Amino acid sequence: MLPPDRRLTHRLYLRIWLAVAGSLAVFALIVGYAWRLAAEHNSQRLEAPPGRELQLSRADGSLLLQGQANRLPGEPEAGLQLRVQASDGQTYYLRLSPRQRQRASPDAGPPGPHHGAAFWLRPPYGYVWMLALVGLGVSLGVFPIIRRLLQRLEQLERSVQRFGEGDLSVRVAEQGHDEVARLARQFNAAAERIESLVQAHKSLLANASHELRSPLTRIRMGLELMQGGQSSPAFRAEIERNIAELDQLVDEILLASRLDAGAGSGAQIEEVDLLGLAAEECARVEAQLSLAPAQDGSLLQVQGDAKLLRRALRNLLENARRYSQGGITLSLQRQGQDNLLRVCDLGPGVPEAQRERIFEPFYRLPGASERAGGVGLGLALVRSIAQRHGGSVQCHARPDGRSGACFELRLPQQGMAAAPSRT
């Protein structure tokens, strides 16, 4: 069974055509019926009636002529014309002049069908007027049908115009299942996407300006304290730390912008060994690596960009090290066609109500200090990279009941090769 938006009865052009064709069919039936009535009327006037027996006699009763009389066809204004076929084989013609019209009296019989009518109502003019009135009625009947069908197009046009003028919140009412309804749904989806992108860019600029201002202010204060004296190692370390924070922030902002804009044409898609990648990153942060052997003996590999996957794994490990003093574990296992990477720590954990919001750009948990490091883009980048590879990332509590959080990064084996393109 076809879906509702694919049925022929939900095609706009078909509905308009059916409305016009149905109106024309009704018009043709009325015209045909009127034509038939007119033809029958004319045939009654012009066709000769059946022949009748005629006898012509003298006053004494003797028979002069006997035969079959037939009326000849013709207009009533020409008078009565008869053709008489006599019994002796001779043919005779009898013509009577038309009857003179007299003023109607109260005792006179009923007038003819067109007696007393204006000339423009008599045949054939009356027939033309009837057709004109029928055509006018059909036109008036079709207009509200087509008007109702096309009125939604005008509403869509006005909405698109308002959207083009800058009103990104405008939406179109979705009614029906035809082409206009599908176009309205697609417009609303596109408008929703554009509005969210614009809002995300505005939020990115506002938060980036705030995050850039903080290390710049600290660098400026350090330089002012260093003027006119020898800089201590602590000051130099502080400036280097702020410069590194600026470099990290700029790098993450650029990467977030590229991923959000869908700039993936330059990605190097290759077979990535997740086990080797995880071993290198665990050695860098001194995390414990555990591997659950696959039941089919296959390797933990994924089609994707090795740089992006390394960045996602590094961000998860750096986030765990920031909030946990040791006890970081990274486990890898195969679940069906997916590769599951789980990073667990022994930190304070993430409240259940905040486990989705922490993946928003520049969002920090309440009470988190800038001294803890990070600019609030690390986990947002992890989600963007996971989605680009057709996967997902989620935050859960530790399965053993201890304090801390576990981040599960799920990547399908096909990875970026099977992930849908984001525009």
What does this protein look like?
- The structure is a single chain.
- The chain has 423 residues and is of the alpha+beta class.
- Among the domains are: 4-42 and 119-151; 189-260, Signal transduction histidine kinase, dimerisation/phosphotransfer (DHp) domain (Helix Hairpins, Orthogonal Bundle), CATH 1.10.287.130; 269-417, Histidine kinase-like ATPase, C-terminal domain (Heat Shock Protein 90, 2-Layer Sandwich), CATH 3.30.565.10.
- The chain has helices at residues 12-46, 125-164, 179-226, 233-260, 274-285, 306-323, 378-388; strands at 52-57, 63-71, 80-86, 91-96, 269-273, 288-291, 301-305, 329-335, 338-344, 392-397, 405-412.
- The chain starts with 11 loop residues before the first helix and ends in an 11-residue tail after the last strand.
Short description:
By secondary structure, the chain is an alpha+beta fold.
Which tags fit this structure?
single chain, 423 residues, alpha+beta, Helix Hairpins, Heat Shock Protein 90, 5-stranded mixed sheet, 4-stranded antiparallel sheet, 7 helices, 11 strands, 17% strand, rod-shaped
Describe the SSE topology:
Layout: H1 12-46, E1 52-57, E2 63-71, E3 80-86, E4 91-96, H2 125-164, H3 179-226, H4 233-260, E5 269-273, H5 274-285, E6 288-291, E7 301-305, H6 306-323, E8 329-335, E9 338-344, H7 378-388, E10 392-397, E11 405-412
Parallel strand pairs: 6-8
Antiparallel strand pairs: 1-2, 2-3, 3-4, 5-7, 8-9, 9-11, 10-11
Helix pairs in contact: 1-2, 2-3, 3-4, 4-7, 5-6, 6-7
If you consult CATH, what is the topology of the domain at 269-417? Heat Shock Protein 90
Side-by-side strand order of the widest sheet = 6-8-9-11-10
Q: Termini distance?
A: 32 Å
> What is the level 1 CATH name of the domain at 269-417?
Alpha Beta
What is the count of helical runs? 7
Structural class: alpha+beta
